[in-house]
Amino acid sequence: MPSPAITSTALATYDVVIVGGGSAGLAAAIAARDAGSDSVVMVERDDRLGGILNQCIHNGFGLHTFKEELTGPEYAARFIAQADERHIERLLKTTVLDIRRTDADSNPSTPADSTTPADPTHPIDVCCVNAERGVFHLRAASVVLAMGCRERARGALDIPGTRPAGVYTAGCAQHLVNIEGQLPGRRVVILGSGDIGLIMARRLTLEGATVACVAEVMPYSGGLKRNIVQCLDDFDIPLLLSHTVVNVEGERRVEAVTIAQVDEKSLRPIPGTERRIECDTLLLSVGLLPENELSSAAGVSISPTTRGPLVNESLQTSVPGVFACGNVLHVHDLVDYVSEEAAHAGASAAAHAQALRDANANPPAATPATPDLELPIECANGVRYTVPTTVAPTRMGRSLKVRFRVSGVFENRHVSVYVGERRIYHKLRPMLAPGEMQEVILVSKQLEGARPGEKIRVLLEEE
Amino acid sequence: MQDIIYDVIVIGAGVSGCATARELARHEGRFLVLEAADDVCCGTSKANSAIVHAGFDARPGTLMARLNVEGNALFDDLERDLEFAFMRIGSLVVCTSDDARPGLETLLERGRQNGVEGLRIVEREELLRMEPNISDEAVAALWAPTAGICDPFGLTIALFENARANGVEFAFNAPVTALSRDGDTWTVTTDRGTFRARCVVNAAGVDADTIHNMASAETLTIQPRRGEYELLDTTAGTHVAHTVFMLPGPMGKGVLVTPTVHGNLLVGPTADDVDGKRATQTTAAGLATVRERAALTVRDIPFRETITSFSGLRAHRAEHDFFIGEAADAPGFVDCAAIESPGLTASPAIGRMVASICGDVLTRNDPAAFAERADFDPHRKGYVNLHIVSEDEWSALIQADPAYGTLVCRCCVVSEGQIREACRRGARSVDAIKRRLGVTMGRCQGGFCTPRVLQILCEEHPDLDLLSVTKSGPGSEYCVAPVKAPRGGGLDA
């Protein structure tokens, strides 16, 4: 059945549509409004705003943003209150199905692989579904992707054994305990030392379960140092580095798992080191993956390293008018950084909407202006990725925060930034670990004189 | 013991048992299916390659060969009547050395003898056009356009729902513990009571030998043969366009690489004889074998996109043929056993054959028994598939039932409305929902949606709560106790 032609007059049109109402979506919405966008809407699939913060009832949120320790729901509440004050519209229990540019007839264009690129000044169609309105469309000058991430599941690790009940991702167990009020098991082994796994080790212990151990395949933890101290050490829960789960037993419910030491280089289990641990639950905290199915379908280019969109200094993706922030862009360690990044994306989205409005009011002269110089940011020597991956010095404002993660544990290394052959940043960091996000601040002055074809490089140096 | 005497009791609600039940339902009589698990499709039927085989593989003259080709031909009508997912995408048996070419010719000839249509050998150039990711070693392949892929859960559930709608009774969590015969009446003892019937069908999968040997002195032995698989995300689903087999070896058909009807890429299976009838664990060695052998026919498989691995047990018999028929020393006891590959493909034909044998048993004593029913309804409404509805159709569904507007499973695009519908049609566990709708089968593997699915199951089944709701029947509960209750006050006080 063909859908009826969609006329733009029948559609709600927004400056900024934000996909997701979690920590990133909230901060982006508030910043977009504060940057002058009158019509901003958050589309959230859950029945409330706040996203995963709602199940993070432990404290430690907000130290940077509010200079105090809040729980997840408290941190979310602060942002929700700001959104309320600004009367920012939100669509709850609403799922975004599709994002695509409209064509000359104001219909959603065919997907990204179409040969003729859609006019980037056309509004973006956001197709949604909810129980009240059915399938419906919004129109936006700018879209902010703020969908967050998902947890890697057992299959991603290929853990052999049976497939009984009692294997949960740490976040799923967290939901069961903190939202549903149910204990998922009594004797628990946790694989992976990501932050949610560490938090759940403490949470389950407090609820009376026994956490036999946390096994981590890498020779270092993927979580924050403070969580290892406060969630494991304080409860005498052993952290077994360079260990993994090599078998799961139990026909209906987990009865035991076997862990084994792994070779530090190959990460393969070392025969003879197997140890069977009786338990009824295996929690997995083995990494987070940005949820970019919508982004990919919208034609957004995805980084193979972060699995999030490639963005420029404005956090704009490869699709003009589509911005990204928070864990859908790259997985963060602290929500405070998500909020800060999302505010930047929200403000950029608002500016983009304003620029489109201005362009429509005063059509640009026939001769297009010379495009801004864009410098790619490359990473090397211990730096796994950077966000963003391109910078236009003319658009970056006075300064720009470049976030990155390192690929291993490094002590006493310098973080260096080069523009071409010129080193513009060089600073000693006593300790760098993959679990903790790093940042450097680029100052626009330092980029003056950069020439076309030059690259910015972020890397670690011994001296 | 119940007073009633069933005409036929079918033991096992896998695809063979359910296909038999649906064929029985075309006739007058009282029919009961007993299933050990909490749902249909819980054994071999749920963990296999989901291939509708063309039929060139089985030895000519075997039951396997005949029922494969017959079953394959029935799939189009069955799909129309029962609304389950089936796609005739065709298969390729890839030959990776010129030395092995005679093997392809043998298969081609065997297929022609079995009555398979459209078979031909494609040379490397054409093969490469059909499958750009085919291995560099591939020299030629046998192309079988009648082969396809299906949703094995969807097929079994459709057969079950249609049989039930036509009056067949089903009892779950009812493993059979004893069988005895008194004259013309069989007594079947289960964990859920004792039932009597004039005819008993043994469709117990890997346990069919245990059931057979309760009834007959002529011993049957079923050797569970494990097959391990890797399932990749839909992002890898177009890596091949057809089912790609290796030229078969002595231990089965080798490792295949195929798209699934859910849009994933499936790679496997291994073939290892195992001791236990529940030995469906995967092994590090098995999964490594899957990856290694798949690379022989298809290159650059993106195993990084693996979302789960699983294994299933084939109900293998040394003679390597289906074992269907009335036991000579046990009148009224009908085996439908040793249904290994291509059992799924053959199932529609197996159902017909077994029901017909049951008819012979029943009419032996009462020529008027088992008359064809005029009121048999062959149609069954499938579940809504939100991947294929138009926006207007979806909106109409939501208008009729707003629950269709709330998505629960983001990975496989499934709404609360579909989950509630599955519950109303009898699904009582998370895996039962999974097999009907795909929920928890996608890339998050249930990380996001499991708590919500548990809630809906409890809402739809008043006898269930968060402590008793299960993954796959009793013993597989998700939660063990409520967390400590707040002591007075609380935030709202």
Descriptive report:
The complex is a heterodimer of chains A (463) and B (493). Chain A is an alpha/beta fold. Chain A contains 9 helices and 28 strands. The N terminus of chain A is likely disordered. Chain B has 493 residues and is of the alpha+beta class. Chain B has 3 domains: 226 residues, FAD/NAD(P)-binding domain (3-Layer(bba) Sandwich), CATH 3.50.50; 142 residues, D-Amino Acid Oxidase, Chain A, domain 2; 70 residues, Arc Repressor Mutant, subunit A. Helix content of chain B is 29%, strand content 22%. Chain B is built from 12 helices and 23 strands. In chain B, the strands form 5 sheets. In chain B, strands 1, 2, 9, 10, 11, 12, 19 and 20 form an 8-stranded mixed beta sheet that branches. In chain B, α10 packs across α11. The longest helix of chain B has 23 residues. Chains A and B meet through β7, α3, α4, β11 and β15 of A and α7, β18, α9, α12 and β23 of B. β11 of chain A pairs antiparallel with β23 of chain B.
